[in-house]
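User: Show me a protein chain along with its predicted structure.
Assistant: Here is one chain, sequence first, then structure tokens.
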Amino acid sequence: MKRTIDEINEMIKKGDVCVVTAEEMKEIVEELGPEGAFKEVDVVTTGTFGAMCSSGAFFNFGHSDPPIKMRKVWLNDVEAYTGIAAVDAYLGVTQVSESRDDYGGAHVIEDLVSGREIELRAVGYGTDCYPRENIITEISLEDVNQAVMVNPRNAYQRYKAATNSSDRILRTYMGTLLPHFGNVTFAGCGEISPLNNDPEFRTIGVGTRIFLCGAKGYVIGEGTQHAPPFGTLMVKGNLKEMKPEFMKAIVMPGYGVTMCLGIGIPIPILDVDMAKFTGVRDEEIFTEIIDFGVPRRSRPVVRKVSYAELKSGKVVINDETVRVSSLSSYYMAKKVMDKLKRMIEKGEFFLTAPVERLPAKGVLKPMRQREVKVVKSVMTRAITVKPDTNVEDVAKIIIQNNVNHLPVVDEEGKIVGIVTSWDVAKAVAMGKIGKVKDVMTRKVITALPDEPIESAARKMEKHNISALPVVDSKMRVLGLVTSEDLSKLLAR
């Protein structure tokens, strides 16, 4: 008892395909069993709608006249990443405006999809082939050559729910958490969510055609932080074909800007097992409630809970009933899968087989952290001299203190040069026994106190020098770091 995706697509062409939503499929499986459901149903549409922070869009703006190579670009005062090409940029939905906290990349994308014009402001390098150094203009979605939504992490299979044991309100990416276990928040749509209906990733993989914000999109790989049963998807779609109805820019208090997206995926019922998978219920989908009142590395699990209990609006913690609220929209998720169902029935949406399956296992590792040594941890006291100090006196200071480098400072302690034992020896050999200002090096390579020592070492290697004066933001000398200091640290 099997069918293929090609066979299903033929049914779509002929208009005799049987498509049901994930919500409807639960009832069919309960009534007919997986075998009966397989005989009746060809495709199950799934849906999810909620905040998906790891989202954004690539833009190609086209060349101005004269052309510009964008070093930085802002869209409605929201900076986009330009390290791609002359007039290409990637705008992340969580990037915040430089002039207001309640507007960001998500709002720019929503404005564009809604047909509004936005301001583009850019500064350039000013090269021979890209002579322009700045531009301010207004653009719409129709004006750009390409606008491609590419989201590194979407459609979480499930999320860990959140609560707060501390005595203060916490503002988090899981919403506002009240003190003393005052509430629980969760995300994800449970039994109608795409990845819960294909937990073995048999039909959802690289190349799977999906419904993305009202347009046809594709799965292009596993999402970042993919760790089943907390699987994720990396997806793409044409922003110009998307509908504002299925995206919403929001601001989460105390956290920042993000965007709610609607994603729907058709599940082909290839065999009885797929019918069984799509009959999954919220009672069978479990997650954990995590205490955000405790620092992340030691954050405890308060209890295990099913999506059915979360969706009931209340859970029990420490023998107390705690109210629960969802950060995802079940209403919008249903609109997504209903819309996808109609598109398939009308022959407007065909299914694709994945060209590569997603990993069934994954490990979510924390960031590797090691202590980063900074310059101030190895710098030594700097003996400074003034520009009008005699070279003979400098020679005595070098011998008496057994040092090789003396920063030269003005009356305010700001660096104006550096003199070394080699400079002094050369001056004596040439008979130039005058002032320090006559023999010092005026272009001084310096380091900041909180700069990583690796950076300081690279500066010494690049400029073929053996010491760096350490200065503050006002160029006042704080100390000195030498190649000898770094060698001792390496030896330790």
